[in-house]
Amino acid sequence: MCIILGEVVSVSQTKLFVLANKDKTRQMTFYSNAVDTPEQNMMILPVPTNGGTINLHTIRYKKMFDDLKQSVRSTSQQLSRNVLMRSMASASIADREPLEIISHGSYLVSIAPKLEDLLRLNTSVFELTPELYKFFGSHYSREFSYICCVLKQGMEAYEPLCYSHPLHSSGKLFVPTLHYHNHGDRVETHTADWDHLIYSVGTSDKANLGFVSNYENEVAWSHFPTEFQKLRVASVRCSKLRGHHKNQDLAFELW
User: Any bridge partners for residue 14, and if so which?
Assistant: First the structure.
């Protein structure tokens, strides 16, 4: 992932951690990356909700990705503008009330429950282009909502964005890895440059790519909400994806 509005020089060091709660009805996602951009840009994360709720979480756990890394080992060790305007004109006055802006950790966040609600973004903070609106409409079903976020001004080091939501209707963990990067002279859509480490737990061994799971994980689960806490013997999986690959979201089977 990610889907970023505005010009970027590079997006790298993307790290994700996805897991399900104990009864496999909700998913928690951690997302982090390094973006080299000439100006402040909005990032949008598609989230499967099927009408359910998105919760933002503050997890005070700076070593999480380090501990996840210690839980695996490398296998080498072993729309057009007119369409947008018509959509805006068809919305009722009530529907066009600006979305709430939430101060959450390192980010300013707005949550759009459905595609049309992206038209309600507060334009003093967020900017949406017709091209990006059309991109979402052609790639995601009505099951999806959207988390829109920008880094707060002056942030040099920032924490991962953490949120939870209903499990995708497929019963799999949804991994938001579809790219939309504007490089000035081109926009990545069909293929993309990947630099991802994707961690998961409670998934099949196929979620390991370039790594194998240690017998016990090193994750401090007490930092997590009770419903997402796991045992030390829960296997952490890790997929390392780098280079030029098909541009797509991923999904992991749950055990």
Answer: 196
